[in-house]
Structure formats: structure tokens, C-alpha cells
Amino acid sequence: MADLVTLKLLPADFTCQVPRGTPLHDILYKYGIEFPCGGRGRCGGCRVKLLRGALPAAPGKDYRLSQADIDAGWRLCCKHVAENDLVLEVKQWESVVLVDNTPFAFTPSHGRGVAIDIGTTTLAAQLLDLETGHVLAVRTAKNPQGKYGADIMSRISYSVQEKGQHHLQQLIRQQLHEMIEQLLHDATASDEPLTRVTLVGNTPMQHLFCGIDVTPLAHVPFEPREHGIRRFSPADLGWNLPGSATVIFLPNLGSFVGSDILAGVLATRVHESERLTVFVDLGTNGEMVVGTRDRLLCASTAAGPAFEAARISMGMQATTGAISEVSVHDRQMHCRVLGGGEARGICGSGLVDAAAAALELGFIESSGRFVDGIAELDLQAPVKLVQADLRELQLAKGAVAAGIRILLKQLGYRKEDVTQVLVAGAFGNYIRLGSAKRIGLLDFPLEQIKAVGNTALLGAKLALFMSDAELDALDGFSQRIRHVPLHADPEFQDIYVDEMFYP
What we know:
Elements lengths: L3 E7 L3 E6 L2 E2 H5 L18 E6 L14 H5 L2 E3 L4 E2 L3 E4 L22 E7 L3 E8 L5 E8 L9 H10 L3 H22 L7 E8 L1 H8 L19 E3 L13 E4 L9 H10 L8 E6 L3 E7 L2 E7 L2 H4 L14 E8 L2 E6 L7 E2 L1 H14 L15 E4 L2 E3 L1 H25 L8 E5 H6 L2 H6 L10 E5 L1 H10 L3 H13 E3 L8 H9 L3
Helix pairs in contact: 3-4, 6-12, 9-14
């Protein structure tokens, strides 16, 4: 019989038994603990409070807590295993995962289908009646791979250096299988068969799901060996589903520009527009498509960590306790905290707001440095921003703005020629567009900028209704959108440095 210990989590009053020696990292991710650095002990972001039991700890360069914090009961759960019965305080919260309810035209089909957006941070799935187009059920979850890093490169590093790709593949397949089973359970009133599952995600997410080697994505030129559409049976994936559904992962566009961006192009019909359009998806990574129906270019930027608040000293996801908005009234900053309680950190939208507010109040210079006499930016106790946080935001916004400029330049246009800017993704949906313009992230007239929601999920739903021939044609269409490796542009470095400055 296994040697078990009891783990109790408060304030949720949840109790479970786990084998003695189980890493807390493996247990607590699903209960709201984040591991921005992938559980490597580099960031100090996975703090829990020890209320009962023993978790010996000592401060030092490998343990990112002070002796005072340790004496107060705080621990980094990535550094400990459950060797005895424990009672831990875990402040649970619910993340807001962006789904889609946009109406769309379709040709009725037979059965039911599931559309899934595999995000680096979150997963969103919808079950549809293919005869009526009605959404029958919705499920969202955190991406279980997040235990091994909040950003894409951390997971690629884990896959390549620690031989962890098969493990990450099994994690995402198992989670999605469970979500599909839950969707079917939620919609028991219908006995129509499940005929198709369509999936979209960025290139690493596609590789980690499909079992494609991610090694080429770990080094320059970051070009995957495979781009095309992928088809599976449920049995291929180890899924036990009723009927004989086909599981389809839509094709990538190149490098880190995945099928989620292709889906966004389909959803917004950028490829049919005569208007010069900038389509940008702001999330854990920054991807963009620029052009008209005559010619489209795409690119990706390593921008996401700051927008997801990773590597920010008091950064967290957009969950309860996060400062999500900062506004200026009577020359004072006012913060909105998700859940309305005590502030525990700041999420990406709050970070952009805070920088815009600090610029408005003259607290920081266009270079990003605090003005003389200011060492840190107090928001709402105990949350504050330090100089390094503003630098991280500069790197992120500079990369996105530089990418847009380079794509326009290669098309022979200027920013002034753009007629619409479509901002997709969860971050793009919740960010205040005025703040994005103020910091130079989206330097376009506000009337041209529009948040378009989860276009990846909408595009995945559109694909549920495509014929096999139309799906095959997506491979050819995806190759018409030319991928531009930004680092290869001779002016990239100069443009990037220029765009790092705040207006």
C-alpha cells in the first residue's frame, strides 16, 4: 500500500492524499499556484503559506525569499515535496478565459463538432450543433503545460534540454480529452454523433500536441520542419470518444505564427479586404498579419511575457487580486482590483495602464527611466512597479511596434496608410486601447483600432463547417501569407530600439 500524506488547502477547505515525496509543484498548479519560470526556482512567484507541518527552508541565492518571509511561514512550493501532513494557505481564484459568441454564416452539416483554442496559458473549447450552428456547451481550463513555464521558450527548453516533449504532449492531450468528455456530458440532451474536432494554436502548441519535434524552434532561424494541416483519429491520440470523429489541427503560417493566427485571418476576413489592415494578436506571444487581399505578410515577436505579466516583479495573471486597470483622476492614480478585494499583484492590462498613467503624470521619461526622486511606482499597497518592470514592458511593446513597422515597410506602406487595426486575443480584448496608444504599443488613431475578441476560437468554429476539400485548400492559402523573419531585416535593430522609447 502506498505511503500517503494528507494535504489540506485553505481557504478552499480542500483535502487530498498524495504519495509521500510528491513534489508540491505537481499538485498545486491546478489550484491556482502559478509557476512563471517553470518551477525552476528563479522567480519566487509560487509562494504559499505554511500553516501546519514541516517544510524546512533557508534563504540564499537558490531560494527567493528573505528570512523574514520564511519566518512568517512563506515557502516556494517549487522547492518542496510533501514529506508529511501539510496545511497550506492557497489564495484560490478563477481566471477569466476569453471564449467567442460571434454569429457567423455557415453551411449546415450533420452531427456535432468541437472547436478548441489551445493557448499557451489557457484553453477554450466549444461544442456546436453543426445543423444549427448553436453552441451547446463551453469549457475552459488552464493549460497544464504551464507548470513547466509561463512562456513558450521555457517549454521548448524543457522539451529539448530535459527531454520533456512527450510529457508535455501527454499533458495537453489528456486535458483536452477530459474537456471534450465534459462538453459531451454537459449536452446530453442531444444524441447527434461527434463528427469533427478542430484545433488551433501557436506553432509550439501545435508541435507539442501533434508530436512534432520542437528542436528547430529552439534555435535560429526558428523555422518548423512541418507547417501543414494534421489529421488524427481519436484512437491516435489515446482518446475514447463516441462515434468516429476526425480531429484536425489547422496549418501554421511559419515560425511562431501558428494556426491561431490563420484562424484569426479567416474570422476577420482580412484576406478578402481591400483596406490596408493590421491584425495583431497580443498574448503570451505577439503575432501579426499586415496587408490587403492582394498581399499579406505575417511575423511574430518575443513580446508576450510582459503582456502576461511574467517577469514583472509583482506580476500575475488576470485573476482575483490583480490590478487590471489604472486611471488618473485629480492627478492621482486609481486602481481597479479584480474581485474588489486586496491587491496582490498586477496583470498585463494593469501594467500598460500604469505605464500610461505614469507618463501622463510625468513620473517617467520617454526613455523609460523614472524621473529624479522616484525609485519605484506605488500603485495600491502592497503592489508597486520597479524600474525593471518598465524595461520589460518597453521590450514587449517595442517588439510589437517594430514588427508592424517592418511589415508595412516591406509592403511599401507607412503607418499613416493603415485604415484599420484589429486587436485579437485575451490581452487585446481587455487592454484599454487609449493606454496602448499612449505607450506607443499601437500608435494609430483610436478610431481605427478595434478589439475583435477570440478570433482563434471563431476561426476554429468556421473550420468545423468546411468540406474536406476546403480544409485541404487551407494549406495552399496559408502559404500565400508570407512569413517575415524580423531579425533578418537589416533595419530591425534600429527600428526596435526606436520603438522602445515611450511617446
